[in-house]
Design brief:
It is a single-pass membrane protein. With 108 residues, the chain is mainly alpha-helical. The chain has helices at 3-35, 86-94; strands at residues 68-71, 101-104. The chain folds into two domains: 1-42; 44-107, CDGSH iron-sulfur domain, mitoNEET-type (Ribosomal Protein L9, domain 1, 3-Layer(aba) Sandwich). The chain has two helices and two strands; from the N terminus they run H-E-H-E. Bound molecules: FE2/S2 (inorganic) cluster (FES). The site of FE2/S2 (inorganic) cluster (FES) has 13 residues, from helix 2.
């Protein structure tokens, strides 16, 4: 074996290591993009409402609801938590199918 043979073997090792490193990088990127359950990659439901609060909560007394109350479930209403019909635009733009929560008294 001469000096040229060692050099050739070194090139093959460098190529093999480069290929393995590239495959590992592609595998890692695919894992983080498609399989990882990290919080950072999940979509948020609430895009605008009270973002400075750790949790958005509304409470109403049943006696104050009147005959009918319509509450937003799409988080796009300008009058949140009351539905203002913004879910229609959201559904048209996204293909979603969300609608309001309607609470009403039974008709006697
Ligand atoms: S505006 Fe959100 S459900 Fe109607």
């Amino acid at each position: 074996m001469g000096l040229g043979s060692n050099s050739s073997m070194r090139v093959e090792w460098v190529a093999a290591i480069s290929l393995a490193a590239g495959a590992a990088a592609v595998g890692y990127l695919a894992y983080t993009r498609f399989l990882s359950k990290d919080k950072c990659c999940k979509a948020m439901v609430n895009l605008h409402i009270q973002k400075d609060n750790p949790k958005v909560v509304h409470a109403f007394d049943m006696e104050d609801l009147g005959e009918k109350a319509v509450y937003c479930r799409c988080w796009r209403s300008k009058k949140f938590p009351v539905c203002d019909g913004s879910h229609t635009k959201h559904n048209d733009e996204t293909g979603d199918n969300v609608g309001p929560l309607i609470i009403k008294r039974k008709e006697a």
